[in-house]
Amino acid sequence: MIEEIIKYDKGFTEATFLTKADHIFIMILNAIMENDLSTVKHYLSEDVYNHFNELVNKYTEEHVIRLFDEMNVKSTDIVDYNVEDGKLNIIVTLVSRYMDYFINEDGEFASGINDHRIELPHRIVFTKKLETKNLGEVRRCPSCGHSLDINASGLCPFCNQTIDMSEYDYIITEIDNI
Q: Mind giving me the DSSP string for 1-67?
């Protein structure tokens, strides 16, 4: 299957892709705990971002903080791929382990599991346009021209423009079980 993916994405390497998938997943959990999705917005499709933003807003309205303690990724595997509408979709199964619970504004336990880690499988779809620009081209903000560190936040520190990573790399277009 990897050889088939490489036909569509010449620079694809399985190890790099899986490491990045793990990293982005952990970043998403951290962003939810911090009630700040700005650090992961550039890795998410609009629909996925809106879903997580609704969750974060719900937690804020309920005056709770969602925590993921002792989190790690147990395994990540590419299980399938397809090409559709000029996009390469790579389907991943990621198995995570963490304690998942809520605390109130006073820092007191509110609900969830805080005494042992749970193990959850997640189906994640990463999508990349077949005709993407070279990631090296995004070293400068397309809005104001300032130098950028895309891995930091995907947000220009000068004009606050979020970089649209879908023009350059894989973004998450589907994710479940969070």
A: -HHHHHHH-TT--HHHHHHHHHHHHHHHHHHHHTT-GGGTGGGB-HHHHHHHHHHHHHHHHTTEEEE
Q: Which tokens sit at 149?
A: 């560190």
Token pair of 119, please? 């193990």
Instruction: Give the pLDDT confidence of 29-68 residue by residue, as tens digits.
Output: 999 999 999 889 989 999 999 999 999 999 999 999 999 9
> What token pair was written down for 80?
């399938």
In the chain the domains, ranked by start, together with CATH numbers, are 2-175 (3.10.450.240)
CA distances from 39 to 20, 129, 163 (A): 15, 22, 11
SS3 of residue 146 by DSSP: coil
- The alpha carbon of 151 is separated from its chain's Cα centroid by a whole number of angstroms, namely 12
